[in-house]
């Protein structure tokens, strides 16, 4: 009798009420991400910069094109926290508006590359065969082209405007995304749930959009956070060459170019936009590294 009671207690403890509750991959990932201080700080700083850029029209102390030629290039003061440029424009205001452009280009061009690269890689990896070979040879050919020169040619032949800048940069950033997604799909399409979807008669379109792509979001999210800094650097380089944002609008790349021309006489014109761009790039890289570690299934064993 005592043995029976003891067994009953064991069964009761092992029942549903005493069972350990499972957690999803995403909950575990967010829990691990919260423990990564650098990634957390990077995410907070990035959110702050995005909020600051959205609120720029209300926060900027001056209009972005307001000039004071009599003042000229003045060092930081109470009236102009980060000084003024050679045309007497407030540098703090220009950095705020420049951040809007740089972040908008970074996110918009990355969205273009994300849309094209994910769909392209998923189709190539799932369909396979000759289709996969043809699609990936196209990627190899495009890889052989010098990306920066390709973007410069697009900007020169089709004009310089913000929408073309998004498309031009996004058009050369999707190649690596396509390869990453294809590699994930090649290993994923052998899974049991894909075989079950095929047996149920689901179309290829439905399998790719509703079963394949949702299961490769982890690597896609990680690479997206690492693509945005590359896009912002490319935009800064194009602006440095004079092929980016046109006056009177500015981006961080434009401000860095203008500051580099007069850095010996007015060093603050180069220093402050460089700090803003560098800090944002560091935040994005820290967040990307943290997401990579958080979404790595092997980290769950630690």
Structure commentary:
This protein is an all-alpha fold. The protein has one domain: Orthogonal Bundle (MetI-like fold), CATH 1.10.3720. The protein has 14 helices and no strands. It has helices at residues 2-13, 25-35, 37-54, 56-59, 91-127, 129-144, 147-158, 162-171, 174-188, 192-199, 204-212, 217-240, 252-261, 268-294. Helix 3 crosses helix 14 (268-294) and helix 12 runs antiparallel to helix 14. The radius of gyration is 26 Å and the shape is elongated. Residues 1-20 have low confidence and may be disordered.
CATH topology, anyone? MetI-like fold
Low-confidence stretches: 1-20
Instruction: Tell me the name of the CATH homologous superfamily.
Output: MetI-like
The CATH class turns out to be Mainly Alpha
Radius of gyration: 26 Å
- Any idea what the shape is? elongated
Number of DSSP-assigned strands: 0
User: Which percent range fits the helix content?
Assistant: over 70%
Features:
302 residues, MetI-like fold, 14 helices
What order do the helices and strands come in, and which of them pair?
Blueprint lengths: L1 H12 L11 H11 L1 H18 L1 H4 L31 H37 L1 H16 L2 H12 L3 H10 L2 H15 L3 H8 L4 H9 L4 H24 L11 H10 L6 H27 L8
Helix pairs in contact: 2-14, 3-5, 3-14, 5-6, 5-8, 5-9, 5-12, 5-13, 7-8, 9-12, 10-11, 12-13, 12-14, 13-14
């Amino acid at each position: 009798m005592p043995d029976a009671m003891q067994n009953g207690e064991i069964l009761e403890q092992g029942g549903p009420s005493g069972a350990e509750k499972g957690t999803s991959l995403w909950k575990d990932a967010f829990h691990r991400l919260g423990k990564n201080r650098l990634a957390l700080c990077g995410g907070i700083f990035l959110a702050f910069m995005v909020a600051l850029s959205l609120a720029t029209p209300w926060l900027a102390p001056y209009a972005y094109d307001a000039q004071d030629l009599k003042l000229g290039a003045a060092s930081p003061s109470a009236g102009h926290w980060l000084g003024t440029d050679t045309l007497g424009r407030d540098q703090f205001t220009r950095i705020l508006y420049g951040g809007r452009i740089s972040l908008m280009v970074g996110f918009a061009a990355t969205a273009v590359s994300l849309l094209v690269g994910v769909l392209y890689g998923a189709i190539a990896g799932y369909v396979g065969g000759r289709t996969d070979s043809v699609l990936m040879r196209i990627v190899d050919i495009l890889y052989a082209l010098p990306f920066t020169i390709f973007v410069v040619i697009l900007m020169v032949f089709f004009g310089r405007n913000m929408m073309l800048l998004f498309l031009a940069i996004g058009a050369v950033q999707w190649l690596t995304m396509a390869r990453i997604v294809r590699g994930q799909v090649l290993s994923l399409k052998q899974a049991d749930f894909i075989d079950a979807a095929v047996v149920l008669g689901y179309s290829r379109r439905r399998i790719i959009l509703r079963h394949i792509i949702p299961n490769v979001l982890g690597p896609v999210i990680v690479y997206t956070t690492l693509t945005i800094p590359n896009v912002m650097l490319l935009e800064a380089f194009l602006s440095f060459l004079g092929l980016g944002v046109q006056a009177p609008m500015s981006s961080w790349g434009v401000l860095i170019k203008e500051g580099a021309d007069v850095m010996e006489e007015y060093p603050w014109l180069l220093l402050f936009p460089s700090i803003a761009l560098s800090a944002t790039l560091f935040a994005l890289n820290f967040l990307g590294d943290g997401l990579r570690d958080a979404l790595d299934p092997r980290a769950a064993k630690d």
